[in-house]
């Protein structure tokens, strides 16, 4: 039987606000335990929440970026359950009236095809604290610094049909939130976390199969691996005549498998009801229009512009718009050097290669975009030749100079284009190599073409690589042919 | 001096008749001598009060000082007070010394008042008799065999007995008005959102409101002016300027349209209370007011709606008491569930548990629509009753309670206790203001028991309510009567 | 709607209230009478009525995104039952 996999994602994005969603405590990462848990975050008796305007603005921007409907009224509800990292015994969330309604995210697959993935809604909620299990004489330590950090939960429709599509969707969400600047998107620090719903059904069947929810799959790669494992597990189970149980599972990256989180599933009853400490959030059209005007150019728009206006290939435009950091870097290089194609070649060639070798992200590049732009300018205006350019790049990478021009000067790499100087060097080479000159002159045209390389090499060597190779070639030909 | 109102004490302090220190000492001595019989205070902060009095006296050298500077008050023990135990009447918070001040505590301190301590109350404000307090019941100063009402029973009893000239209470379903009526004092529940709830331990967030309890409407006006106002820390507090309530107290009542809700004079109303309220209304007629009957058709649904909404909110509000960050923690928990279950079973009393269970049950899957959603729909109908009534009349009047104060230990059955709040609870559901003033007495066991007249107005009509109450007190002397214990000297 | 012993036990568990069988039986009785009183709500038709969560028709005010709260950990942990190295301690949480 042919099986179809059906996937839906719930992505939690930590919003990049300075303060928490309902209090004035800092959201900075990595502080001393509980040093950023204020009275409101601790849920002290008598404290009350007040909503952070930046969290609202960020959620609205996301909604607009995915062409979602932004309802005029949204409401916060309480999700009630006990857990030590949940100080109040309830999480303030949005169950019935979320801030962002249905929208769509476009994903691009490996073959360049695109697909629209529906977003059911996105809502605001507060994050919980952290439980630390090590070394407290068998007890668990609770750090509430993260409690109250604003989260936006983006709930997709079950529109994905493969692990690759799910990973592409997650990447698209990552690109949108980082483009908008509403999250740092750092998955390693938990700024983006993902729950995956997976089910399978016989191809052609309309009804969905029973789904399993895989919790906290926190990298693009793990999402693919977890889905592929889970899909196989369910298919095998069904083909053996078993049934898939609706349950929560955990992905273990080391064993590359998912496993059931609880042996005895405890029925949750979160008793959602509207939070009486918070009033309905009302967003008028003027506010929404204002947020819309402040939207930056988004990945899809950028990709189109790179192709249509800058004349880049679909492939180049796709890669260079894949993250805001990459796109911003490229645009600086392009603006400084004035040549989009050369800029694209350098960013994707020399720079990406070096970054990959050192396992660095573009944000960590030792060569700033402005510096690379300066270098590419000198290539474009023929100040240096390709070989020298690679040397300059390496010098910039090693921090040997602040600008390409400084390094070109210091190393004397400027291309020699003065005809007189080149002619002098050619004359010398001809004088030093009489035997080769004779051979050349006796050869036919086809052979001459190959033999001239030797003389070019000698002249370049004499110029320590700075002579303009095209000029050398032309002048040599002229001289040898007359000699 | 224990017989004076806030306004009178302020004048006397200004005239140099006594110092703030002498004043505070006199009240502390009364508490020391008399409160053993009443149990109206949970914590007395004598040292802090005396130190504050010295500061107030030192400042008095100049001419400029706030009206309430150096004057004692008391705070219901639901109000977070930095450095002072804030128990909420519960074993759960018996060890809780608040690390911060409620907004109203800051405002009161800013006006120069001096807190003598924290008054007794029903546990987590859940009760109508002060009998659910972990610290034992408070006794009614008029008749020690009677309850003082609740949940702000300690505040009411302390003011009535002259242990403090005024106090702050909170009112979720009648918790200021009912004990004020039972103890023969004046008490105001402001419009929801008029007074900040920040730092007031939550019982039912959409109903809770703090307000003044004092001898006179004029004192209530002065205190309300002090504690009211917009608070950036409370999303439900209202951005609306605070009027000069005392400036409005001289208005004539000629032409005032009074409505008497038919449903507030029905079955279950004690004849003595009925008679006292009708007499009071006659007084108003003599002052030029007109009276007509009005209907609030959904009155009978107020208690049912309240006993869904309040416990639902409470069940969630009280989840934070888990033995982890503050409050009672059981000994040697064997695991996490044991920590939760035992800490909460030990820390909460029976009535609190009962309401947590009702609230949890009515919010749970399968019951939410039938109970919670239904109650919220009925809540709108109840508010609409008042909106409609205030199209016809300026204020509504009726009894504050169906009977005078009942005996201690008389109401064993929770439902019969809940029914005591029949005339006060709808006001919280609608969010409107209400005031109670002393309007007569009924026979008791060891003494007479006071009767309260309740006056209701539309949202933010506090000025009018205070004036209507003040005019009554200008023409009657019920509010000047004192229980025997108040006549005793320290 | 009647309330059963099992409903009370379930609510007690959800609310993390330790209750023995005798307690539970007692609460079944109490809660039964309270809910019987509450059932009067069913006598009124509310099909067309919007539920009301707040007494005033006000809307949420938004706070500027500013850090206003300093570190007061030691101050806040003075009322905590059990802390170590700045962490609140609870019996081991099994993941």
UniProtKB/TrEMBL annotation, chain A:
Span of domain Asn/Gln amidotransferase: 328-480
Class of this enzyme: ligase
Keyword terms, alphabetized: ATP-binding, Ligase, Nucleotide-binding, Protein biosynthesis, Transferase
BP-aspect Gene Ontology terms: glutaminyl-tRNAGln biosynthesis via transamidation; translation
Reactions catalysed: L-aspartyl-tRNA(Asn) + L-glutamine + ATP + H2O = L-asparaginyl-tRNA(Asn) + L-glutamate + ADP + phosphate + 2 H(+); L-glutamyl-tRNA(Gln) + L-glutamine + ATP + H2O = L-glutaminyl-tRNA(Gln) + L-glutamate + ADP + phosphate + H(+)
PANTHER family, A to Z: GLUTAMYL-TRNA GLN AMIDOTRANSFERASE SUBUNIT B MITOCHONDRIAL AND PROKARYOTIC PET112-RELATED, GLUTAMYL-TRNA(GLN) AMIDOTRANSFERASE SUBUNIT B, MITOCHONDRIAL
Subunit text: Heterotrimer of A, B and C subunits.
Function, in words: Allows the formation of correctly charged Asn-tRNA(Asn) or Gln-tRNA(Gln) through the transamidation of misacylated Asp-tRNA(Asn) or Glu-tRNA(Gln) in organisms which lack either or both of asparaginyl-tRNA or glutaminyl-tRNA synthetases. The reaction takes place in the presence of glutamine and ATP through an activated phospho-Asp-tRNA(Asn) or phospho-Glu-tRNA(Gln).
Name of the protein this chain belongs to: Aspartyl/glutamyl-tRNA(Asn/Gln) amidotransferase subunit B
Automatic annotation (TrEMBL), chain B:
InterPro entries xref list: Amidase, Amidase_CS, Amidase_dom, AS_sf, GatA
Active site residues per record: 76, 151, 175
Gene3D superfamilies associated with the record: Amidase signature (AS) domain (3.90.1300.10)
Superkingdom: Bacteria
Broadest EC class assigned to this enzyme: ligase
GO cellular component: glutamyl-tRNA(Gln) amidotransferase complex
GO molecular-function terms, A-Z: ATP binding; glutaminyl-tRNA synthase (glutamine-hydrolyzing) activity; transferase activity
Chemical reaction(s) catalysed: L-glutamyl-tRNA(Gln) + L-glutamine + ATP + H2O = L-glutaminyl-tRNA(Gln) + L-glutamate + ADP + phosphate + H(+)
GO biological process: translation
Domain Amidase positions: 22-466
SUPFAM superfamilies: Amidase signature (AS) enzymes
Keywords, alphabetical: ATP-binding, Ligase, Nucleotide-binding, Protein biosynthesis, Transferase
EC number: 6.3.5.7
Subunit structure: Heterotrimer of A, B and C subunits.
Protein family according to the UniProt entry: Belongs to the amidase family. GatA subfamily.
Function (record text): Allows the formation of correctly charged Gln-tRNA(Gln) through the transamidation of misacylated Glu-tRNA(Gln) in organisms which lack glutaminyl-tRNA synthetase. The reaction takes place in the presence of glutamine and ATP through an activated gamma-phospho-Glu-tRNA(Gln).
Name this protein carries in UniProt: Glutamyl-tRNA(Gln) amidotransferase subunit A
Source organism: Aidingimonas halophila
UniProtKB/TrEMBL annotation, chain C:
Substrates-to-products reaction catalysed: L-glutamyl-tRNA(Gln) + L-glutamine + ATP + H2O = L-glutaminyl-tRNA(Gln) + L-glutamate + ADP + phosphate + H(+); L-aspartyl-tRNA(Asn) + L-glutamine + ATP + H2O = L-asparaginyl-tRNA(Asn) + L-glutamate + ADP + phosphate + 2 H(+)
Gene3D superfamilies: Glu-tRNAGln amidotransferase C subunit, N-terminal domain
Similarity comment: family membership: Belongs to the GatC family.
SUPFAM superfamilies tied to this protein: Glu-tRNAGln amidotransferase C subunit
Protein name: Aspartyl/glutamyl-tRNA(Asn/Gln) amidotransferase subunit C
Entry GO MF terms: asparaginyl-tRNA synthase (glutamine-hydrolyzing) activity; ATP binding; glutaminyl-tRNA synthase (glutamine-hydrolyzing) activity; transferase activity
Biological process terms in GO annotation: glutaminyl-tRNAGln biosynthesis via transamidation; regulation of translational fidelity; translation
InterPro entries the UniProt entry points to: Asp/Glu-ADT_sf_sub_c, GatC
Keywords carried by this UniProt record: ATP-binding, Ligase, Nucleotide-binding, Protein biosynthesis, Transferase
Coiled-coil blocks: none
């Amino acid at each position: 039987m042919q099986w179809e996999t059906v996937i839906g994602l719930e992505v939690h994005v930590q919003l990049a606000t300075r303060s928490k969603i309902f209090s004035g405590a800092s959201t900075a990462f990595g502080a001393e335990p509980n040093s950023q848990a204020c009275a409101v975050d601790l849920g002290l008796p008598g404290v009350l929440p007040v909503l952070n305007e930046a969290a609202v603005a960020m959620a609205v921007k996301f909604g607009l970026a995915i062409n979602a409907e932004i309802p005029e009224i949204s409401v916060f509800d309480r999700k009630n359950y006990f857990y030590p990292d949940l100080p109040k015994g309830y999480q303030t969330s949005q169950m019935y009236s979320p801030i962002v309604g249905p929208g769509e995210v476009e994903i691009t697959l490996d073959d360049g095809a695109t697909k629209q993935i529906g977003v059911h809604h996105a809502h605001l909620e507060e994050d919980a604290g952290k439980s630390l299990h090590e070394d407290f004489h068998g007890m668990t330590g609770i750090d509430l610094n993260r409690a109250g950090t604003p989260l936006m939960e983006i709930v997709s429709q079950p529109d994905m049909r493969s692990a690759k599509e799910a990973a592409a969707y997650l990447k698209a969400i990552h690109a949108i939130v980082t483009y908008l600047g509403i999250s740092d998107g750092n998955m390693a620090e938990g700024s983006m976390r993902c729950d995956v719903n997976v089910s399978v059904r016989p191809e052609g069947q309309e009804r969905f199969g029973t789904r399993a929810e895989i919790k906290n799959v926190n990298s693009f790669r793990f999402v693919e691996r977890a889905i592929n494992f889970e899909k196989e597990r369910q298919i095998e189970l069904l083909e053996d005549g078993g049934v898939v149980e609706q349950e929560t599972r955990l992905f273990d990256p080391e064993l590359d498998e998912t496993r059931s989180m609880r042996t005895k599933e405890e029925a949750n009853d979160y008793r959602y009801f509207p939070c009486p400490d918070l009033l309905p959030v009302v967003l008028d059209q003027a506010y929404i229009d204002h947020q819309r005007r402040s939207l930056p150019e988004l990945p899809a728009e950028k990709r189109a512009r790179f192709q249509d206006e800058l004349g880049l290939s679909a492939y180049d435009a796709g890669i260079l718009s894949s993250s805001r950091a990459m796109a911003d870097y490229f645009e600086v290089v392009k603006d400084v050097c004035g040549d989009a194609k050369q800029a694209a070649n350098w960013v994707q060639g020399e720079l990406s290669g070096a970054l990959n070798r050192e396992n660095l992200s573009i944000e960590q590049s030792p060569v700033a975009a402005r510096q690379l732009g300066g270098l590419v300018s000198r290539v474009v205006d023929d100040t240096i030749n390709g070989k020298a350019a690679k040397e300059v790049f390496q010098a910039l990478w090693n921090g040997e100079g602040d600008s390409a021009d400084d390094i070109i000067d210091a190393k004397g790499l400027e291309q020699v284009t003065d005809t007189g100087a080149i002619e002098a060097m050619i004359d010398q080479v001809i004088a030093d190599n009489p035997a080769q000159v004779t051979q050349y002159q006796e050869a036919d045209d086809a052979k001459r073409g190959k033999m001239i390389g030797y003389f070019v090499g000698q002249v370049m060597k004499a110029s320590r690589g700075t002579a303009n190779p095209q000029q050398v070639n032309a002048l040599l030909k002229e001289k040898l042919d007359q000699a | 001096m224990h017989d004076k109102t806030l306004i009178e004490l302020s004048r006397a302090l200004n005239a140099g008749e006594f110092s703030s220190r002498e004043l505070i000492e006199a009240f502390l001595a009364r508490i020391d001598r008399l409160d053993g019989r009443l149990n109206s205070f949970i914590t007395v902060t004598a040292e802090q009060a005396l130190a504050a009095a010295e500061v107030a006296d030192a400042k008095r050298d100049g001419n400029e000082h706030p009206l309430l500077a150096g004057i004692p008050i008391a705070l219901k023990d639901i109000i977070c007070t930095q450095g002072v135990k804030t128990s909420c009447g519960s074993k759960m918070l018996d060890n809780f010394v608040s690390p911060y001040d409620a907004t109203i505590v800051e405002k009161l301190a800013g006006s120069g008042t001096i807190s003598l301590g924290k008054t007794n109350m029903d546990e987590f404000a859940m009760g109508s008799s002060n009998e659910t307090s972990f610290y034992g019941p408070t006794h009614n100063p008029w008749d020690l065999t009677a309850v003082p009402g609740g949940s702000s029973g300690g505040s009411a009893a302390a003011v009535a007995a002259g242990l403090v000239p005024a106090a702050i209470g909170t009112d979720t379903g009648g918790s200021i008005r009912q004990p004020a009526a039972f103890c023969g004092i004046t008490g105001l529940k402001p419009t929801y959102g008029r007074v900040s709830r920040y730092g007031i331990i939550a019982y039912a967030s959409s109903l809770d409101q703090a307000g003044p309890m004092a001898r006179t409407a004029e004192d209530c006006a002065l205190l309300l002016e002090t504690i009211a106002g917009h608070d950036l820390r409370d999303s439900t507090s209202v951005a609306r300027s605070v009027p000069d309530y005392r400036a409005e107290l001289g208005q004539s009542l000629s032409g005032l349209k009074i409505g008497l809700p038919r449903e507030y004079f029905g079955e279950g109303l004690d004849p003595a209370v009925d008679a006292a309220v009708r007499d009071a209304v006659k007084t108003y007629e003599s002052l030029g007011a007109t009276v007509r009957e009005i209907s609030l058709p959904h009155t009978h649904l107020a208690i049912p709606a309240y006993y869904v909404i309040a416990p639902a909110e409470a069940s969630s509000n009280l989840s934070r008491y888990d033995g982890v960050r503050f409050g009672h923690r059981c000994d040697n928990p064997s695991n996490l569930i044991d920590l939760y279950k035992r800490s909460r079973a030990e820390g909460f009393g029976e009535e609190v548990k009962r309401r947590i269970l009702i609230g949890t049950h009515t919010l749970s899957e399968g019951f939410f629509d039938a109970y919670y959603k239904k109650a919220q729909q009925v809540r709108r109908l109840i508010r609409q009753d008042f909106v409609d009534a205030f199209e016809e009349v300026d204020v509504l009047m009726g009894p504050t309670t169906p009977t005078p104060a009942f005996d201690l230990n008389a109401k064993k059955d929770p439902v019969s206790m809940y029914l005591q709040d029949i005339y006060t609870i709808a006001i919280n559901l609608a969010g409107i203001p209400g005031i109670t003033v002393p309007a007569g007495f009924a026979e008791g066991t060891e003494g007479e028991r006071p009767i309260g007249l309740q006056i209701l107005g539309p949202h933010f009509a506090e000025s009018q309510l205070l004036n209507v109450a003040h005019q009554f007190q200008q023409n009657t002397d019920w509010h000047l009567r004192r229980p025997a214990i108040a006549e005793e000297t320290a | 709607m009647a309330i059963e012993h099992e409903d009370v036990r379930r609510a007690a568990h959800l609310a993390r209230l330790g209750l023995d069988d005798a307690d539970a039986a007692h609460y079944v009785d109490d809660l039964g009478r309270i809910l019987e009183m509450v059932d009067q709500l069913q006598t009124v038709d509310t099909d067309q009525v919007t539920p009301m969560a707040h007494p005033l028709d006000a809307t949420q005010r938004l706070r500027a995104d500013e850090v206003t709260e300093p570190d007061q950990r030691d101050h806040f942990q003075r009322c905590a039952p059990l802390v170590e190295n700045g962490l609140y301690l609870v019996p081991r949480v099994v993941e």
